[in-house]
Amino acid sequence: MLGPEQINVSPRPPPVPMEGIAAARVSEQVAKAIGLKDNQIVRGIIEDRGGLLKLVLNNRELDWDGSKRFKPGDRIDFRVESSIYGRSLRPITGGEVKVASAAIPVPPALGASPRLLSLLYRPVQPSTINQLFRPQTMAPFIDQLAAANARQSADQLIASMQRITPDAVRSGLLSSGLFGEYMLMQQGASRPDIKQFLRSLLKATAPNQTRVITELTSAIDEIESRQIEGLQAQQNREVSYHFVLPFFDANPVSVHIEREANYADDGEADWVINLHTETDSLGELWLKTTLKVNSKIEMIFWADRPGSVDIARAASADLKRRLRDFGLELSKLTLLDARRPSIDSSLSGPGQVVDVRT
């Protein structure tokens, strides 16, 4: 059975009919820069650029006669095709199966998998994993289930906030459940991860414990939805790893590591690391870290409880020193006594809006 990171389901059918619309020609140079491959499914967005409608694909503007039949914000799916005349983008009709394989061929019958579609369109909601791995939740949870190896598995996956190290963060990423099927396929055996742990708890749960089953299932769905998200980013030459670091002496920390696609003309793209957690003493905290190509770092810190920013400011000198030990320079630190502003995820795709979050 295929794992979610092994397939990619293209999003919903385009909003207007594709019949009669000619394919868009692209040069080999542009195709190489964007990363187009034969039979790949890609998504473009129509944008208004100075009164002219352009097709924006992987942050590149393309001229396309068919754009006149659309309005700004419309999304169109294309199939990449090659011929003696070069590369072209053929608009996909709504009835076509839009499934592409990231590793091995995918059976056509899998194209309309309700399971995969439910993961792809999983609604935005509070993280079940975050709630489940709070110390006051997880400890009695394991004791209640009395799973034979639940405590041993938990000890392997849950770290100590007091002894956090770069290696512990790396291990947390590898054990997040994002790479389980990939490691199994590559190595024949996989290390323990959070998704395996949750499945073992689900297996040990009595059928009459409906609430527990619902929570565990939702947590597994959350991980598999993130796996598909990561695969989609990979096919766009981007990076997106969204996972949770659990601790037995502190609340979990949500981590999102992302990087836009690299293009030769624009140089190396920045890496961005977003952190979010909640503590009894400091309240809710957010941190956005941007790592520049020259090893300089910019940080923005938000705290919703009065006094938390003052504590962060007092610790800033020690933070700069610790970063220097790793060859990094903290060039900018912004501390904000407020909640981090949010933005609708449906508006955050390429070409949709300019990110003006601070």
Describe this structure in words.
With 358 residues, this protein is of the alpha+beta class. The chain folds into three domains: 4-111, no CATH class; 122-237, no CATH class; 270-358, Transcription Regulator spoIIAA (2-Layer Sandwich), CATH 3.30.750.140. It is 30% helix and 25% strand. It is built from eleven helices and 14 strands. The chain has helices spanning 28-34, 114-120, 128-132, 135-145, 150-157, 166-174, 180-187, 194-204, 210-235, 308-314, 316-325; strands spanning 7-9, 24-26, 41-49, 52-57, 60-62, 75-83, 86-91, 99-101, 239-245, 253-259, 271-279, 283-291, 296-303, 329-336. The strands form three sheets. The chain has a six-stranded antiparallel beta sheet with strand order 2-7-6-3-4-5. Helix 5 packs antiparallel against helix 8 (194-204) and helix 8 (194-204) packs antiparallel against helix 9 (210-235). The longest helix is centred in the middle third of the chain and has 26 residues, at 210-235. The two termini are 43 Å apart. Mean pLDDT is 78; it is low at 1-16, 94-112 and 345-358.
Descriptive key words:
disordered C terminus, Transcription Regulator spoIIAA, 14 strands, globular, 358 residues, alpha+beta, 3 domains, six-stranded mixed beta sheet, disordered N terminus
Give the rounded overall mean pLDDT. Answer: 78
Question: What share of residues is helical?
Answer: 25-40%
Which parts are unreliable, with pLDDT below 50 for 5 consecutive residues or more?
A: 1-16, 94-112, 345-358
Count the DSSP helices.
Answer: 11
Bin the strand percentage.
25-35%
Helix vs. strand class: alpha+beta
Let me know the number of strands: 14
The coarse overall form would be globular
User: Rg, please?
Assistant: 23 Å
